[in-house]
Amino acid sequence: MDLAMGFFQDPVLRTDVVLYLPAFGHLQYLVLLGLLLLAYFSALKHNRLRFVSSSSSKDDSCSNKNSNLAGLTLPPGPMPWPIVGNLLQTSPIPHERMLAMNKRYGPLVFLKLGRVPAVVTDDPAIVKAILKNQDAVFASRPASIASQHFTYGGNDIAFAPYGAHWRAMRRICTLELLAPRRLELFKQGREEEIALMARAVWTTSIRKSSDTSHADTTKAINRTDSITENNIVELRHLFGSLASNNLARMLLGKRFFGPGVTGPRDGSEHRSLIYDAFALVNAFNLADYLPFLRWLDVQGYEKKIKDIMNRTDRLYDAVIEEHRRKRTSAEKDGDSTTNKFVDVLLAQKGLSHTVIKAILVDMAAAGTDTTSITSEWTMAELVRHPAVLSKVRDEIERVVGGRHRAVRESDLKHLTYLRAVVKEVLRLHPVGAFLIPHVTVQDTELAGYFIPKNTRALINTYSLGRNPAVWDNPLEFRPERFLGDEESTTRSDREVEAAASSSLFDPEYRMVPFGAGRRGCPGAALGTCMIMYGVSTLVHGFEWATPEGREIDVSPAYNSVILDKPLKLVPTPRLAEHVYH
């Protein structure tokens, strides 16, 4: 089989729902109704100031010893119900309800999610205080039931609580795994994956539904619904394969994840495990907020995550042991090369098998969603806005020098307008409606309010990108807002100040696609590279149209911010044939 066709063999139905707040179904409502009836006798309104004193008295470290905190109150917010707190008020679509709450109560809102205190914001100044000015105070993570199983008890990086383990793992990640010198070693692999993707799309674009020379391959492809008849490409699978194949090269030194000789089906099965597990990590589990319900496992989430992680264990155990044996054999032969991530981890002294496994799972989960979801949204917005697409293509051709060669990774730093397009996509369509929650490690003050220890800080990235106090015409797709050109006369001063930044990081914290500070994503540079590389290759290499001229449906999935329906487009080659080979 053509190696390029591995891009289209993905039977996984993705669940890219990134939720950190509840989205109730009928079962949850029934459970909560029962709890409310049982608690009816105690249905008295809570005094918010009394919560401050009671939470402070439970732990000496939470006591208000700092005179600067004396007299401060909690941020405003809706009155909580007994037991369930504000859980019902955050349904059915949390990020939209939170946007409305910030409009009503102010830039910082306090909530009680069951037994969990939380604050939510969509204000850049407060986001900056959380992620930069006080990032040490807000540096920890909540421990959910699913994440504890997924990370083998918090032994990963992304979900690990703030402490010595997290600092050690972060150091390994930034200095060894994702350091610029290490990423440079995998540049050839990234270029090969991009070339294989372009070749796969080209092969699809020239195939006719009646072409018998491709009968066997077409049958296999159509069985997965990744490509349908009439030369249609499903971009979600395409970008998902690009990201996961590139990641497998970095982790294991081969295109598809798994021990021994692997192929597209192995890669698909691995993605299925990771997506299913990550969906449960990000889903709302009632027992996380009302711990006394855990033994009931009302939604069945704990049973599901245990089953998935049992299968994941067997796969990762086999992969790690295979590389351990190869490493031992290579060392006997005097070869200590450690280019692959798994080998780098095995070379670290003091890392247990469990920790290595947790980090590999972590990177597999984090290394796919951001790039594939954002790339899909970018292509959707470009096709919906032909003038923007034309400007992107003109810029690419100026940098590349026409149509006689493909885009190279070294070209990306010169694609200023494309970078602005990607930033505009991330502003309007963040990968998740909320960043992974931060947790305070001590009492603190934020925006003039008292924030107790162990409070969750929820940054509503969906609302942040639509805040009219920050953005002019926030619902308009206009990449020029990120350029310091003549169009700056139509933009606010705050927009102009941040426009000169060539990276996806916004120094004003008006958008935080990769987080920031101590808990910022260490793979931001790699993610940015893959988004721009994949999109620029497809825009330069092909004309794109919708099937039968239909409009693109940009409706988000229920209670999510990803496209509800996978993006399907028809490509037409626009370069010389040799470029695709």
Walk me through this protein's architecture:
- With 581 residues, this protein is α+β, with helices and mostly antiparallel strands.
- It has one domain (3-18, 170-441, 443-580): Cytochrome P450 (Cytochrome p450).
- Helices cover 46% and strands 7% of the residues.
- The protein is built from 20 helices and ten strands.
- It has helices spanning 26-38, 48-57, 94-105, 124-133, 145-150, 164-177, 180-185, 187-206, 215-223, 235-252, 264-282, 286-289, 301-332, 341-347, 353-384, 386-400, 416-428, 461-464, 493-499, 524-541; strands spanning 108-113, 116-121, 227-228, 232-234, 438-439, 444-446, 449-451, 456-459, 542-545, 568-573.
- A four-stranded mixed sheet has the order 1-2-8-5, sandwiched between helices. The chain has a four-stranded antiparallel sheet with strand order 3-4-10-9. A two-stranded antiparallel ribbon has the order 6-7.
- The radius of gyration is 25 Å and the shape is globular.
- Residues 8-21, 40-65, 209-228 and 485-502 have low confidence and may be disordered.
